[in-house]
Each structure stands twice: as C-alpha cells, then as structure tokens.
Amino acid sequence: MNAHDPLKSNGNHGCGGTFVRTIRRFRVTSWAKERKGSRSRHHCGEAAQRRSLSKRTAAVLVPAIFLCLSCAGFGIEAEEMELFDPRPASERFAEMWRDIERGCEQMRQNGKAEAAGELLKRANELKAAYQVKREPIRSEKVELHAVGVYGGRFDRGPKRRGVVKVKVTHKAAPLILSLSAYEPVEWQLEIDAGVRLEEIFVSGYNAQEVKTGSGEPKITNRSGGGGDGTYCYCRNADYVRLASMLKRRFGAEPITFQGGYIPRDRPFVVGAESDDWLTQALMAALRPIYKESTKAELEETVQEVSKLRFQAMIGRRYGDFTVFGPIDATLRPMPDQLDPFGFGFRQIAYDAEAKQYYAVSRSGVKRLDSETGKLATLTVDRSLPGLSAVCGLTFDTKRRRLLVATMAGEGHLFGTIPPETSGPSFRR
After folding, report:
1. How far apart are CA 377 and CA 366, in angstroms?
2. What average pLDDT does range 224-245 have in this prediction?
C-alpha cells in the first residue's frame, strides 16, 4: 500500500485528510448532542451514557465516505473540503469555539496546561478584538474576500444586466475582491477612502460589468467567454470549485464569502459593519489556534479510522481503499462491458456476492451482471425525487443495498431495499 501522511490530503488520490476531518466533524456533532441529552440521565452512570468510539465512527462512516468521495470527484482537497459547510457563520463559529475549549481542556489533562492556557488566552484576545471592539487585526498580508450571486435585481424595470451592490469598508489589510454570478450582472461598488483594494476578480457564466464609482482599482474580468464560467451563490460544490480556482490563481482561499440567489436591496458589506463578515473573519484568525488545540483529537480519530476498508474507483481501476488511498495490490481494471457504447462511467461499486457491478453514467445509474453481461438502468419510484446530479455510490454488503448520493437540490441519499426482490429500482 502507498505510504501517506494521515493528517494531510493525498495529492494523487486526495481523500485521506478530507475523510479524517469529515469523520471528526460528524463525531463532534454527535458528542455535542449526546452530552446535551445526558444531563438529565447522569444518574445512570457516565459509562452507560457513552457509546463506544467505534460505534460513533460507524454511525458517520457512510455520509463521510459519500461526502469525501464526491468531493474527490470534483478535485476538492482536504483543506478546501473545510469550506464545504452551508451553515450560517454564527453556527460554524459556535462549533469552532466549543472545539477549541474542549481541545484546550484535553491538553490540560495530558499535562500541557501551560500551552493550553496560552492558546485559550490568544483565542479570547482575538474574540474580544473582533466581537467587542469590532476591529480586525491589522496585517500587510493580502486577504481574499468573495461575493457571489445567481443574478441581480431589476428595481427599475428590465435591463441588460441585473444590479448587485457591494460596499467595501475593510481597511485593516490589503485585499482582493472576488465577484461571481451566473446571470449578467452590473456590480456597483462603493469603496471607502483608505481601503487598499489591489484587484477585483470577476468570474461567471455570463458577462459581468463592474462600476466602482471612484478610483481605478485593477479589474480582471474572466466572466462570459473570457473564463471557465465559475460562479457560486452559496456554500455548495460550486463554492468549493470557486475557492479552488481562486487558490490556484492567488495562492489562498477566500477568508469570507457572502452570497445569495437574488440579493436583497441593501448592499453586501465587506467590512466589520457586517456581523456575518466579521464572524467569518474571526474564524479565519482563529484557524491556527483551532488546528493546534484539536490536533490530539484528530490524531485519535486517525488511529480509529486507519483500519477502515472500503471499495472505490480510481481512473479506470477498481479495488480496496483505506481512508488514505488505494491498496495497490487490490486494484483491477474496470470490466470492458461497463462501457461498450461510451457511456462514460465515472464511479463504480461492486456486489461480490451477486457478482454485479453498479456504475454512474451520463444516462443514469447502471447495473451489470458480470456473468451474463446484461446491462440494466436502475429506475426510481415516482414518489421520489429524480435521480440527477449523482455524485457518489457504494454497495452496503451488510444490508444488501445500493446507496447513491446526489447533489440535486439540497442533495438526496437513495437506496435499493433490497435490490434482488423487485429488480433494479429505488423505492421509498
């Protein structure tokens, strides 16, 4: 098996660090809910209330694998994966702060009281600076901030482009502003005096236009035919693609992101006047402290999940994987029968007991009987949403069912229960 750093993403296979951090996030959420509910049952004993680490890990294994393999399909790496969180900034910050406090407490229990105290002191200083004084830490390092929408407003009747207003007030550091949209948009910027705006980078499916009102900051317009159409208006897979593109171009991910389908009448504010922007900026400042304080817990999770095995596809080969990459000795070529007419299969799962392959193609989810060579398309019960934007699949050998994850709408998880009794179909 290839050797990998368990705390970093694999540059070739790219889901190890992503998987571990995703497992950890689900486990932390589980612990928080469990701890909240256990207060009224404390008399039953601490041991009786806590599930084992292996059970907690098993409870989140399926969604974690789906999320990580789906992101690997989009070329999303571990650090970028952390941006794939659609919750409001206030909720993400509350979870981060709980993690920091718990991590520091664990450091104290491990004999590192002085280091834990220093980390918590720095964290509280940053929290006070941002939330009480509302003064971001001054820096000469260029910061990247992003705003994205689907389309603009047409308050004064039909126009060639909808209008989106952005007010830039952040003066504590030089900055690059990323603007993206799907529809043609006229970006109207209000830039406060003293703002060090080094560049405005514009991207989107349709052509965009920027009006700054005053000054002439550098504008790089890669929207419409001038770019690859990258845009986003919320924290989903589109946002991670945008963040990845910006990181390749500028060497950093956005510190903050604000977006919406069609913006409200008031402008997006890139500065401390916006509570959402300020919370995201605080989270970025706390990130080094967060990583240091939760390092021991992450290492514990690594030890737990390093024994896991699952099957996945890489290129046109299929075999067994650990969370850090493929086990090379198990990789085998994908059957030629799966792609006789150029269906372009992207992912594959195998039911060893029935000797059947399942694969995702442009025309749906297919099932191949390896003995007869018969290829069938799986159907979906009419009571369920359509099976579109498929991003991952796996076969559950314990429950004898195929599971398929999609990115359509808010995302869905489909399952055949069981696949043998009623033919290849998905039912409620």
Report:
1. 5
2. 86
